[in-house]
């Protein structure tokens, strides 16, 4: 048997391209035996080859709770994305004042009051781990809520669809327009739509580039032709990809390109909430005349409204499907129909596999369980990683050193018989003030130190927010070199305060 879904081909006929399915109760839950047989029978009747060309989807406009929530998230996320590069943050003289900035030439990351150096990339790693754990937790609780409401592909596709409806009309109007021969009106609408898409794509690509350079400067240089070729290239690249993915690829990205639908099943269980068609209530489906009895008839009137509003063009009544992004627009469409025919809302709803199985068997529902082992583990890991990141940020030093032993040669035998090693010392001054330091060797105790480039009194100077580099020569009496490799510890101390940094390296000598 081949699992299938319903699509509208654009010519009024229902077609059923085959799609991969998510199996098991975690993906949507078992159905009652009678209803399962009826659904399976319909799938067999609509079976199609595994591979089929893309069929354009014409989602219809819908109103309801899910649509309002999606619109609110759309406006919020777009506002944050486009406005964030323009936020200012005073970091003092000589520092960039953009609140969020990844300064690749300067090798810095600025996030409000936090400045990340290349040596501190582990902070970004921690943030990425937090984001991943948050996604796992949200998926375990609410299914593909990320895909349906906050994924950039969903957000920009929704925006592009809004533009399309505003210019070409709703579902039926767009279908008629595509069937019409080329005319002045059709050409004007198509040009206006694609022009608007390109403007949005350009703004999107430009905003992305603003996260890597000063936003006002970028805008001025971009439109006066003074920006670098790199800027024009990346703005053009992101303009093209936004236009392609949100305007043309759309549901193909979610179905074929994105790996998340194939991964997220591992985060689901029988208590996860997913967009679900309640077969126990909807079957047997069919047309219903007003005023007639509902006896022996399911609540589903087979109106296909749920299919018409779906951004990926699937029929949620066919069960859990890979293409379902969990946006819930089919819930709004079905609730609207249920209200019109005088039946209770909720034929399609966010529900758990456990309750779907219970009600299919005629048993009462059980309360939803958001607190369970899986979610407890995710929350615990979230708190643990968050605590680690916060602790690291709270205890981070404004001073760091890096010592690299020179390997050519590994050591030098001096005239007095002592052994000398050479090192490259890098001082990371993370303050916006010039600082002076002293360098000592904590162990071995008899080590002699010579610093090339230091002041006569041995002072090491470091410019504000700068990496200072020195060559350090360390020698030990031959009697102190007991092995061809032994520990050596440098201590760098700020002359104006108590700030210090230690670094352990190795001192090499000849074979014993």
TrEMBL record:
NCBIfam families: ccoG_rdxA_fixG. GO terms for molecular function: 4 iron, 4 sulfur cluster binding; metal ion binding. InterPro entries: 4Fe4S_Fe-S-bd (IPR017896), 4Fe4S_Fe_S_CS (IPR017900), Cyt_c_oxidase_cbb3_FixG (IPR014116), Electron_Trans/Redox (IPR051684), FixG_C (IPR032879), Ig-like_fold (IPR013783). Residues 312-344 form the 4Fe-4S ferredoxin-type domain. It comes from the Bacteria. Keywords: 4Fe-4S, Electron transport, Iron, Iron-sulfur, Membrane, Metal-binding, Transmembrane, Transmembrane helix, Transport. This is Ferredoxin. The chain crosses the membrane at residues 69-87, 121-142, 195-211, 231-249, 375-394. The gene is fixG. GO terms for cellular component: plasma membrane. Residues 1-39 are annotated as: Disordered. It comes from Hypericibacter adhaerens. Pfam families: Fer4_18 (PF13746), Fer4_5 (PF12801), FixG_C (PF11614).
